[in-house]
Structure formats: C-alpha cells, structure tokens
Amino acid sequence: MTEDDRHLAPQAEFDGRVARVQRAMAAAGLDALVLTAQDNVAYLTGFDGPTWVNVARPRYCVLAKDGAPVLVVPTTNVPVVRRMTWVQEVRSWVSPNPADDGLSLVAEAVWAVAEPAATVGMEIGPQSRLGMPAGDFLAFRERLAPRRIADADALLREIRKIKTPLEIAAIRQAAAATSRAFARLDAGGDEQAVAGRFRALLFEEGLEDVPYLVAESGLGGYPSLQMAAGGRRLTAGSVLAIDTGARVRGYYCDFNRNFVCGPLPEATRQAHALLWEATEAGIRAAVPGATAAEVWRAMAAVLDAGAAALGARRTQSGRMGHGIGLRLTEPPSIHPEDATVLAPGMVITVEPSLAFEVAAEGGPLTRTLVHEENLVVTEGGPELLSARAPREMTRLE
Amino acid sequence: MTEDDRHLAPQAEFDGRVARVQRAMAAAGLDALVLTAQDNVAYLTGFDGPTWVNVARPRYCVLAKDGAPVLVVPTTNVPVVRRMTWVQEVRSWVSPNPADDGLSLVAEAVWAVAEPAATVGMEIGPQSRLGMPAGDFLAFRERLAPRRIADADALLREIRKIKTPLEIAAIRQAAAATSRAFARLDAGGDEQAVAGRFRALLFEEGLEDVPYLVAESGLGGYPSLQMAAGGRRLTAGSVLAIDTGARVRGYYCDFNRNFVCGPLPEATRQAHALLWEATEAGIRAAVPGATAAEVWRAMAAVLDAGAAALGARRTQSGRMGHGIGLRLTEPPSIHPEDATVLAPGMVITVEPSLAFEVAAEGGPLTRTLVHEENLVVTEGGPELLSARAPREMTRLE
Predict the structure, then answer these.
(1) B316: which chain A residues are within 8 Å (Cβ-Cβ)?
(2) Do A50 and B97 touch (CB under 8 A)?
(3) How would you classify the pairing of strands A373-378 and A347-350?
(4) Cis amide linkage into residue A146, ω under 30° from 0
(5) Beta carbons of B263 and B239 less than 8 angstroms apart
(6) What is the third-level CATH fold of A11-159?
(7) What span, in angstroms and rounded, lies between the C-alpha atoms of A44 and B303?
C-alpha cells in the first residue's frame, strides 16, 4: 500500500464481500441495493472516515445483482472516494441541493439495473438508520415505483456478523491497544482528569478514533455507565468505570474496566467477584453452535445463583452483550430471545451487570457494576481479544 | 450546578427554547412534534452525550402545543436522562425490542395530545436525519393516521439559527481553545504525527470531544480536505491543512489552518494571499441584514477578480461556509442561492477555497487550499470567534 491508500483493503477482500452480498440478494429476491449508512457503504467500498460526520450531504451506494458497486456522492467527496475506495464508477452532484440532493442520479443508477417488477433493498429494518432525509426516502420510493422497496439491512448485518480475518485483525488490534491503555492508567483527580489521561493513552497506544468514551464513578459503584466524565472527584471508596468504543481502521472494540480508590466496600467486592465469574461463564459459553441466548443464560445463571445472597440483582439492560464491528453495537444481541447460532468469525462482547446497595451516611445508595470483554468465536472456542480484567478490582491511587 | 449536572443549562434557557418552538408550531399548524435527532432532542431537553453513538436503540422526544417535552427512551438511558435533562416525564422500555422498539409508547404520548385531525411534525426535510429505523417510521405513520406527518426539522433549524448567549459562549469557548491548540502546534513528521499532536493539544486546551479531524498534505497544497491523517511525510514545500470540528458542551467550532514546511511554492503563496483577502471580505460582509448569498458573493468577487491571473479557480464545493452549533454544519449555507438574512446571534463559518496548479517534477499538480474562520453576527457587525489565521502561512519546522 502507498502512503495514500488509507484503510484500503486488498481487492480480494472487497470481491469476497460483494460476492457474499450478491448471493444473499439472489436468495432474498433483491435486484438492487441502495445503501446510505456509513458502515454498510464502507463494508462494500472502503468509503469511510470523518466526512461522514457531516450529515448535510447524503452519500449513496448502488449495488446490482452482479458487477461492482456504483457510488453517488457529493462533488466534495469525489477525491476521498478516489483515494479510499476501489470503486471505478463514481457519480457526483454539487451538494447541498435541496431541490435534488442526489436523488435523480441515484434513481437513474437503479433504473439501469432494476426492471419495473424489481425489488430494491434499502436500510429500513430494525436497528438500521438511513443516511438520507426521510422526506427524500418517501420521494425516492415514489420515483422507483412500481419497484418495491424491501429491507436490505438485515441481509447485510447477517453477512457482517461473520468477520473476515482482516476485520478480526483490526478489532484485535483495537482491543489490544485499548487493553494496554487501561493497564497504563494511573491518574487520580476527578472523572475528567482520569478519562482525559485514558483518552491520551488510547491515542498513544495506536487507536485512531475514540467515538465513545464514558466514565462514571461513585461510592462503591456508579449510578449508570452511559455518561461522559464529569467533575466528580475520586475519594476513598470511589469506584470508577471507564467504557470505551475505540477504533482501528474503522473497527470498534468495546469494553470497560473498573477501578477503585482506597478501600473497596465489601458489597462492591462481592458483586465484583460474582460479575467476574459471570463474565467467565459468558466467555466459556461462546463456542460455535451455541446460541446468543445460551451465552446470556450462562451469565444469568451465575448472577441469579449468587445475587440474592448479596442483595443484588441483574440490571434491566435488555441484553448482556452484542456484536461489534464497523458499528459500536451490531447483531447478535446476547439476549434471552436471540436465537443466533454462534459461528467462527463472530466478534461479540459479553457484558453482565449488577445493581446492589452500598451503605453510606444518609442511607444506602443504589449502585451498578458492569464488566465487559471482547472475544472472537473460533473453531477451537472463544478467543479473548481484550486482556481479561483482573479478578480483583484494580486500584487507582 | 452540582458535580452531576453535566451540561445542564439554567431552566430559563430551556423554557425559552420550548416557548420559541411552540410559537413556531402554532404558526406552522403543528399540533405535536416527535423528535429523534440528537441535536434537536438535546436542544429542547439537554439529553446529549456519548450514548447517542449507539444507534441500536432509538430515543424519542414528544412536544405538544403547550407544556414540557416528554422523553421516551430505552431503560438504559433513564439514569442519564434523569441527570442530564430537566424533563420530568420520562417513559421507557427495554430495548432493543425488534417487535416494538418504543413505538407504542411514543404513539400513546402523541395520541394523548394530538386529535385525529392533527398534524404531527417529524424530522423529514432537507438535511435532516431520523434517529429511528425507516421501517419504524413507515409503521409509525400508519399508527398515527389519520393524523398527518409534516416536516418539523426546518422549523427547528430556523429557530436554532439564532444562538442564545449560552450557545454562543460554548462555541466561543470551543473556537478559542482550538485557536490556542493551533497556535501551539509545532510537531513535524508525517500527517499522523502532526494530527496526533494537534488532537492532544485540543484536549489539553479544554475541548471535550473531537468528532471531526481531517489532515491532508502535499507539495504546495493538498488534493482535498476531507480525510483523516495518513502516512504522508512532510518535506520541503509540503503544505499541510488540519480542519477540525471540536466541541464544548455539545457545541461545535469548525475551522482549519494551513502550515508549510520549508519554502512555500510561489503559486501557493499567491493563492494563499488571495484566499486570505477573500476570507476577509467574507467576514466583513457578515453583517445583520446581509444575506448568506451576499457573503458568498463578497468572497466570490475577490476570488474571481484575482484567480485568473494566478491560473487558479474557485473549487466546486457548492458553498463557502455554513452555520455551526449542535451540528457540525447547520443552516444557513453560504451559497449563492441561500437568501437567509443574517441576524444577530447567527454563528457561521466563512470558508473560501481555491484550486490551482503547482509545478513539480513530472508535471504540474492540481492542488487545493482552504481557509475557514468562525464568527458570530452581532448588532455591531461580525465578531470573530476563531483567532484570525495569519496573513503569511505558518511555518511548521
């Protein structure tokens, strides 16, 4: 690769992805796809990067039953597309153009490959997001009529559940670098100081992008684990969790670590030990042939067996893990009703959590603890990508 | 504010925002709004932050003709909403739930405040994005029938064009801190080394989040200014541009700076001087009562008057600036057809660019140069928020 081929994978990688998607299109009766979401477009073409932060301009990828994808992008994105992707056929318009923000060009590209009786796949199913205005989507549906629109997102996510070796390598690299950053974390002060130090370590260790970084703390645990660092100071008995979704070549790792200042309250120590065992059970259960639900049940069984004695309970998070990849969270969900059968190449998080009470002046506080690890399912069983969290909570002095 | 009231503005700020939106709803004949986009929801409620990176779960805000907004969010977001927002009425469900990912709760909230003959506003217009799957949007439309759905995004963007003093203060802080980071930038090496150093400086100077950071370089200019830093080394005559969208309390500044290593090619020096003058003209033109198109024409006039003599030309970017705020780019567009009348409180970028040729071994190279500044329109005229780029390009040794 030259200095300009940023992120560009070998041609065989893209050929394989396109072939898998086109096989699935044939099976699903889809004659063409019109994709607008960053992750799906990047998967097929390599077109990724910071320009996607700007949503003033939509970007379209059209894929027919055979042949290579066509990109329809704003003129400003053409140089990026030429440098980041393998796509030859690039059409462009000067955007923003409220009167016709690319729709005519996209419709022409679809008409050329999809008969009136055709079905066109777009990202409309559960957990999808369209990278275009909803009004344009409604107008586009009418332009394509009598062609039918059906969901294409499930098809892409199904294929993307199984990562290629190149994708796994990127997530492995992200998780290893994030593990090194966690191992080096030593700062004290308030949440922001610690989170700031950790973010600096992430970049030092080679992460390219940190879209998700939350840090919460409290006596013996935290109220939730969803917010950016605040001004809360870490004092004796404070437990701080940092959770990050950090990327290498566009691929996320996603896990957290817990830290304690001074003495660990006993309720927290016990909850932490139980969570560590539940995580262990989740990792062990992630073997080819097991379902996502079985991984969930393996963790739930450990938690439910031990929680009552601690006055603790599973949190109502809806799931205890999920796939990762070009998105921070992807299918499957580690959820009691997700029947996805794990297969080699799937990369998932296991993420049990507990709620419990910690004694404090003024009465007990409700606290949460979360553990999360990343693993890839292999023929030989689960392979951890994050460096396993220590059995005893790490001290931050 | 306590250590936990992260980003929460005074109640009067939210009351003012809601009152302005409800007045506009009355004028537009909208009986209720259902909002799903991070920026709009954050504007009315304060609900912002890293959790929005996870798009597996949608979040809804319902606003009636009067009264306070209602938030309908996944259970996992409830603690965040309690700590970050002023909203009392919070309804939640365990998500992801493909069978009903919040839609029933949202429909009930709308039914309670919107008669069958009502019109419900959603984010469907130009440059909008829905924070929910398109399939759910289609199903939701049917659930609300016979209520009509109309665009609400234009209404919100119209109000949000005029920033409040609190919003301007956040952008001013972001732009000032980013200016200090640019002033301290001294690293050499390759694009990634310089961009990495700059990112570290941004956080040191107090930026909270850097969603957008691009860095491109080349002999005498760059091929575009859209890509993350690559491995290109800076050598004699290299011109590097860094452009960043960096946030404080959720608000973006957005501007770039140009740096040269060693001697500046003459063609670049002349193009840079012309761009500096064009930027100056754009800033001067940003007075109350002028239109966005007039600001564009002020810059285009300078560029067109000087470009031919340099063998240069305006780039086909479609616009030369835009609004900034909770989104990296907001209306208005500094575009020849944008008739928006500038008014005090608008915060915009002016962003002229030129394409030209630079002599090189092997033949001339087509290069781009971009200048960008941020300003707020005040009664007294434009007030720069970014520290004005120096007239002579900064040397990076």
Answers:
(1) 75-76, 94
(2) no
(3) antiparallel
(4) yes
(5) no
(6) Creatine Amidinohydrolase; Chain A, domain 1 (3.40.350)
(7) 39
Token reading at B109:
């909230």
DSSP string, A319-361: -S-EE-SSSSSEEEE-STT--PBP-TTBEEEE--EEEEEE--T
Q: How many CB atoms lie within 10 A of CB B361?
A: 6
**Residue B39 identity:** D
Domain with CATH 3.90.230.10 in chain B: 165-395
Separation between Cα atoms, residue B269 and residue B313, nearest integer Å: 15
Helix (H), strand (E) at residue B310: helix B292-310
Check the CA dihedral B39-B42-B47-B49 and report its sign: positive
SS3 A252: strand
Beta bridge partners of B253: B246
DSSP tag of B173: H
pTM: 0.95
Rounded to whole angstroms, the Cα distance separating A145 from A164 reads: 36
CA distance B241 to chain A (A): 15
Per-residue pLDDT for B2 more than 50?
Answer: no
Average pLDDT, chain A: 95
pLDDT above 90 covers a percentage of chain B that reads 91
Please give the class, per CATH, of domain A165-395.
alpha beta
Alpha-carbon Rg for chain B in angstroms:
23
State how far the Cα of A162 lies from the Cα of B119, in Å rounded to an integer.
44
Neighbouring-strand partners of residue B353:
B370
CA–centroid distance for A9 within its chain? 20
Could you give the residue range(s) of every CATH 3.40.350.10 domain in chain A?
11-159
Residue ranges with strand state E in chain B: 32-35, 60-64, 70-74, 90-93, 119-122, 148-151, 209-219, 238-248, 251-260, 313-314, 322-323, 330-333, 347-350, 353-358, 365-370, 373-378, 381-384, 394-395
> Rounded CA gap, A125 and A155, in Å?
10
Model pLDDT for residues B141-189, shown as the tens digit of each residue: 999 999 999 999 999 999 999 999 999 999 999 999 999 999 999 877 8
- Mark yes or no for CB contact B227/A151 under 8 Å: no
The predicted structure's pLDDT at residue A8: 75
Alpha-carbon separation of residue B315 from B250, B272, B365 (angstroms): 31, 14, 15
DSSP character for A302? H
CA–CA separation, A193 and A199 (whole Å) = 10
SS3 assignment, position A39: helix
Nearest to B39 by CA among B47, B31, B51, B27: B47
Q: Could you tell me which chain A residue has the CA closest to the CA of B128? A: A133
Contacts with A96 from chain B: Cβ below 8 Å: 126-127, 318-319, 333, 335
CA distance B120 to chain A (A): 14
| Sole residue written with tokens 């960053």 | A38
Rounded Cα distance between B326 and B48, Å, is 10
Q: What is the pLDDT of residues B86-106, one digit of tens each?
A: 999 999 999 888 889 999 999
Q: What is each CA distance from A70 to A110, A174, A236, in whole angstroms? A: 10, 30, 58
List the Cα angle B132/B136/B140 in 5-degree steps: 110
Q: Residue B148 in 3-state DSSP? A: strand
Long-range contacts of B271-274 (CB under 8 A, 24+ apart): B271/B221, B271/B310, B271/B312, B271/B354, B271/B356, B271/B369, B272/B369, B272/B393, B273/B391, B274/B302, B274/B303, B274/B306, B274/B307, B274/B310, B274/B312, B274/B354
Nearest to B95 among A151, A245, A318 (CB): A318
Tell me whether residues B133 and A125 touch, CB distance under 8 A.
yes
